[in-house]
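chain below, 182 aa
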Amino acid sequence: MKSSMLSLSWEIEKNLAAAKIPDNIDIRDEAFGIDPGINYGIAQVYRKFIYVAWGRLDVRTMKKPNHYMEAAEAAHRLMETIPYVEGNDLHPVALEGAAFRSKFGEANLAYVRAGFYLGLRSRGYFPELVPPMSDRLRVIGSGKAKGEELWPLLNANGADAAVLALYAAGFSFSSNFSKVAI
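prediction:
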């Protein structure tokens, strides 16, 4: 698979991971990527490092339909923990959009995605909703590949968030793959 060209050496502790981005990769200094859901992943590119966290939203009841609204509230609270930005300090944020051909849960996931989106907006960010295959095509080189195939040591949600953060940071497989060591 082409994606093996973006090799990062991850340091992992519980549900957190960090990796140094090779110096010859040309990307923005700061960007975020979020794989929304009750099980979520959040990644931040910051000064040639990428930091990834994953977890599960604190939902008190799993009775439908309320648990999706509770998840939306929890996502909003989670996003309120990131630093507030104003004006020219805005950093790109890629928030995974809907997979319209998915067989399960997209309608209910919309509530959770909205919680992440509104939480980001409350902190001054303007997230870009990115179709799942678009970020993968640009970053991995294949729209069908998943982040966990590229970085199997990461949780699937964390790996997908890392792909989204690299997307928001402007990484492009087609312009960088020859620069990165396997």
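The longest strand covers residues 39-46. The mean pLDDT is 80.
thats it, cya
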